[in-house]
Specification:
- The structure is a single chain.
- With about 325 residues, this protein is of the alpha/beta class.
- The chain has a single domain, classed as UDP-N-acetylmuramoyl-L-alanine:D-glutamate ligase (3-Layer(aba) Sandwich), CATH 3.40.1190.
- Helices cover about 40% and strands about 25% of the residues.
- It is built from 12 helices and 14 strands.
- The strands form 2 sheets. The protein has a 9-stranded mixed β-sheet, with helices on both faces. Strands 3-8-7-2-4 form a 5-stranded mixed β-sheet.
- Helix 11 packs antiparallel against helix 12.
- It is globular, with a radius of gyration of 18 Å.
Length: about 325
């Protein structure tokens, strides 16, 4: 029996997260050290810090819509699935830019609005393709739990929540509770090892109570489980949720469903221009496949294809040619 039957006709992937605009800059380790960034991590800052750092940078920046859950639902929409994004943005030009891009990419929007500027993320991309992030949450930090009551969850097959919302405990707890009450599967991406370390106790409570699909990369998994060994880490994650995912970059991924662990091989030779959005787009392919009722291994393969394609470009936006290759591989 196909897994899609468990969704009772529901087919929407709802992403809940921070509505952010990504500012991408290629730089070197020397500049990264000057900024005080935690390499591969995320640090919360104010808008002035981002502006000051931009002024110091030698290279030009690229502006694209971003945010982890946003990237994921855009990927679902581009694959042909039904997707919705819930978040809070400003009313200025960046907010308009953010909303119009979602609609252009086949994503339904339920955007809460604020007079505060739209949040933004400065991603410093080093030659090893690692991205280190400084985040000004802006309007996204003003989302209140009661505002979620106006948002649609009843048609959701999966509600996907980014771990960055752990900075707003009341909001993430309300989001997960509402998703469960609506009968949706709950997917949680741990987002950043720095967040896992700072919120581990609360995170453990949320996972035990609400989470059906737990997604982590190797750094996040180590921070959460204490294991750097891949097999031990995925085994530990599998004990926390019915479906657990461990992404290990150019080595591929592991997916645990019940007692069975699947090893998903990587695409290509591991070369990457930029890893921005790699985990988010992997989640897009995986969740799309899950809602379509595909076997777990095929879900993982679609995720791997999406993660590979986004690493070949700067930013989290896969070009049309990349989506064509992904869809062609799905049909094989």
């Amino acid at each position: 029996m196909q897994r899609v039957m468990a969704f009772n006709g529901k087919d929407v992937v709802v992403g809940i997260g921070s509505a952010l605009v990504d500012i991408l800059i290629h730089t070197d380790d020397a500049f990264l050290n000057k900024t005080g960034a935690a390499k591969g991590g995320m640090t919360l800052v104010d808008k002035e810090f981002i502006e000051k750092t931009l002024a110091m940078a030698a290279n030009r920046s690229v502006l694209v819509p971003g945010g982890s859950a946003c990237n994921t639902v855009i990927g679902v929409g581009k694959l042909g699935g039904r997707a919705r994004f819930v978040g809070k943005c400003g009313q200025g030009q960046m907010g308009i830019f953010f909303e119009s891009d979602l609609k252009k990419n086949n994503v339904m929007t339920q955007l809460l609005k604020s007079s505060t500027p739209t949040g933004r993320v400065l991603s410093l991309i080093t030659p090893d393709a690692q991205r280190s992030m400084f985040t000004f949450l802006g309007a996204a930090s003003e989302a209140h739990p009661e505002e979620l009551l106006t948002c649609e969850f009843n048609d959701a097959a999966v509600v996907h929540v980014e771990g960055y919302l752990l900075f707003n405990k009341a909001l993430i707890q309300t989001a997960l509770a509402r998703a469960k009450a609506a009968g949706a599967m709950v997917s949680l991406d741990l987002a950043s090892y720095t967040i896992v370390k700072s919120s581990k106790e609360f995170l453990e409570e949320l996972i035990e109570k609400y989470v059906d699909i737990l997604i982590a990369n190797e750094d996040e998994a180590e921070a959460f489980t204490g294991f750097s060994d891949e097999e031990k880490a995925i085994e530990a994650l599998s004990k926390r949720a019915p479906i657990a995912v461990l992404k290990v970059g150019k080595r591929g991924s592991y997916i645990a469903e019940g007692a069975r662990i699947y090893r998903i091989g990587p695409l290509g030779n591991g070369d990457a221009m930029d890893t921005t959005g790699a985990g988010d787009l992997w989640a897009a392919g995986f969740l799309f496949g899950l809602v379509q009722g595909f076997p777990i291994e095929k879900c993982g393969a679609i995720g791997s294809a999406c993660g590979y394609e986004v690493c070949q470009v700067m930013g989290a936006s896969i070009p049309d040619e990349g989506w064509k290759r992904i869809k062609s591989s799905m049909e094989e």
